Sequence to fold (296 residues):
Amino acid sequence: MIGNRRRFLYQPPLPLTNANNEWEEIARTGNSEKISTSIYNATQTINGKKTYIVRDLLKKIYYNKCVYCESIEFKPEIEHYRPKKSVTGVKSHPGYYWLCYEWTNLIPSCRYCNTEGGKGNKFPVIGHRVHLPIFDSGSLEKTSCRADSQYLLGEQPYLLHPDIDRPENCFSFDNKGKIKGVDPIKRGSNTISICNLNRDNLKYRRQSIVDRIVVRINDAFTVYFMIDQSEPHLNAALHQVFQEMKDNCNPEKPFSLLSIFAFNNFGLVITPLLATTIQKTFTNNAFDEFLITYQL
Ligand SMILES: [Zn+2]
Fold:
């Protein structure tokens, strides 16, 4: 997961706002069976091309990625941050049915993260759990439905919200691709277990990003030792690798939170994987020089 403030730059898409009457009825009656997938799947055709209005806006905002695991996902499912029909492990809770069409409750996710092996309907909280919507003069109080409302934030969810929280402060990574929670109230470690973010498939793909950097650094030293023995050439080759690391931090890249951590903690993640003390020292110095050159 990576933090993202872009959602608040966009108005909720029309299929959600146009569903106001249906939304009010569901909130009033508590009948979650009335929640309609046709609203999430509403389409429009522009220049002969059919697009899914809600899904495609979520895709755009989140760079075609699953918010939870940061895999590239061109056909994301629309996941409910607060589950709409039931809450895993809380039998008495009917689900947050009244948040069904609330924009800030919708998250693009991969199939795995949207099922019970991943995040599914899990939503553990630290604080007092909210069971009911708020009404004002008979109408649903919409501001209390926003994920950043005081009403809902009072629950103190364990699961981080990409638009509200700063996931970058809650996680670290090792050089095997394993993610770890680091914040004192354990929202990071709980988000990992809720979404199963250390499943083998993800660890393998995160590790391969680290491995590729190490291979490229080793290749630069091989050229230096075996072919030209030019320190300026070696420095230039290493700077190209560091530039790739920096590019990997862009939010549209898969697993960019790992890359940000590796870039900010080079000596912790990358250096130990280098073969010799000479390589480690030279590479660390070259990395420091790269940071100074680009004022990073
Ligand atoms: Zn995912």
In short: DSSP finds eleven helices and eight strands in the chain.
